[in-house]
């Protein structure tokens, strides 16, 4: 996306609310808010909302004990986030990708979710406005 792209725009208030839910560990609840945004957004920036949503669903699946579902959602979420620049609408996409990949690697190495380190479930970080 170019500098004049939607990634240069401010994060919509509804997305900020959804990220607050994500960061509070309300992974199920963040889904509905982000789903409404990505469905309504016709531009490629919708990938940001899809990516965050699916990473959040993966974290929810981890809490539910569904390792396979979590790995599937991490793969999907990363597929969307990999199409974005390192920062988009004030979201530190590079950090989110790195955090999600760390969770993915830990899950791949940990067949028993009872041994999974929950501290790996990091929040979505926002960059300071210029």
Q: What is the structure about, briefly put?
A:
The protein has helices at residues 13-23, 27-40, 46-63, 67-81, 93-109, and strands at 87-88, 91-92.
Describe the structure.
The mean pLDDT is 93. Strand 1 and strand 2 form a beta hairpin. The chain is mainly alpha-helical and 130 residues long. Helix content is 58%, strand content 3%. Strands 1-2 form a two-stranded antiparallel sheet. Helix 3 (46-63) runs antiparallel to helix 4.
Structural topology:
Layout: H1 13-23, H2 27-40, H3 46-63, H4 67-81, E1 87-88, E2 91-92, H5 93-109
Antiparallel strand pairs: 1-2
Helix pairs in contact: 1-2, 2-3, 3-4, 4-5
The helicity comes to: 55-70%
What is the count of DSSP helices, taking H or I runs of 4+ residues? 5
Distance between the termini: 19 Å
**Given the C-alpha coordinates, what overall shape results?**
globular
Chain-averaged pLDDT = 93
Q: Could you give the count of β-strands? A: 2
Descriptive key words:
mainly alpha, single chain, 5 helices
């Amino acid at each position: 996306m170019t500098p004049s792209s939607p990634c240069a725009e401010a994060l919509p208030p509804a997305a900020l609310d959804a990220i607050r839910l994500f960061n509070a560990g309300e992974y199920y609840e963040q889904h509905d808010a982000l789903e409404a945004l990505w469905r309504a957004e016709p531009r490629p920036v919708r990938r940001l909302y899809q990516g965050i949503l699916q990473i959040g669903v993966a974290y929810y699946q981890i809490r539910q004990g569904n390792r396979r579902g979590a790995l599937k959602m991490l793969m999907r979420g990363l597929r969307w986030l990999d199409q974005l620049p390192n920062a988009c609408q004030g979201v530190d996409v590079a950090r989110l990708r790195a955090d999600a990949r760390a969770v993915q690697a830990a899950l791949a190495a940990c067949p028993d979710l009872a041994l999974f380190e929950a501290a790996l479930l990091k929040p979505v970080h926002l960059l300071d406005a210029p």
